[in-house]
Amino acid sequence: MTLEVVLYGCKSAKDSPKFNFADGVYHTKIKDVKQQVFIENTEDSIVVYSLKKGWKRLDLKTTVSEKKAYPQNSSKETLGANKYWQNGFDIDILTIPLKFRPSVQSFPSQFSNNVNGVVYLGYRSDIYRLSYKKNPIGRITQDVKHYGLSAGFITGLGGTAINPWVTKDALTIEYDGLVWSKGIAVLMGLNQFTFGIVGGLDHLLDKNRKVWIYQSKPYIGLAVGLNLN
């Protein structure tokens, strides 16, 4: 049996940014049973279609067998499922404003904040919580909260300070060297913003890489960025 649920709100979800709650297929739980649903935003409501197995081969209109309008009141029982999620691949542009490098060759551990940029590719779950509240004059208002969790890989370029101290006095000059970073990341997204922890390796790309004490050594970084999709 399939179900179409119409959730009415005071503001169209189409007026909200795409990352809030766009039309599409989501996972949810209805009466403690996990299933897929299709979300459709109309001018004054959100319509939730329960999908049958093999829905990709069906006309969406033929899957509807019952229709209910919500909210009838402000209790959770009449609002139906209020948590929806999507899974998929994620691409972000990140920067790592802070890196912690452990002690190497008697050189003490340190923090660095050189300019850099990396591309992130991973697998992400976006969770949307849909709720309704009754205001003092009895009207129902809609609220959508969104966050995402993701894990994957990074690669990119950045700068680092090259000087006598980080080359064990093999150089007598100071300059900013170009490094290639690679590693893994665990990220959390709040709306379009992304932040998280990175574990990576830096590789100096010039001839002094053989004397740089951090060549191919691990670091831990703080990553921030903007979700591209």
What's the short story on this structure?
The chain has 229 residues and is mainly beta. The protein is 2% helix and 58% strand.
Explain how this protein is built.
This protein is mostly beta strands and 229 residues long. The two termini are 34 Å apart. The protein is elongated. The chain is built from 1 helix and 12 strands. 2% of the residues lie in helices and 58% in strands.
Output the radius of gyration: 25 Å
Provide the helix percentage.
Answer: under 10%
Unreliable stretches, pLDDT < 50, 5 or more residues?
4-18, 62-81
Give the beta-strand count. 12
> DSSP strand (E) fraction?
over 45%
| Strand order, sheet with most strands | 6-8-9-10-11-12
**Mind summarizing the main beta sheet?**
6 strands, antiparallel, barrel
Topology:
Blueprint lengths: L3 E5 L9 H4 L2 E7 L2 E9 L3 E6 L16 E4 L12 E19 L8 E3 L3 E19 L5 E23 L12 E16 L2 E12 L13 E10 L2
Parallel strand pairs: 1-5
Antiparallel strand pairs: 1-4, 2-3, 2-6, 3-4, 6-7, 6-8, 6-12, 8-9, 9-10, 10-11, 11-12
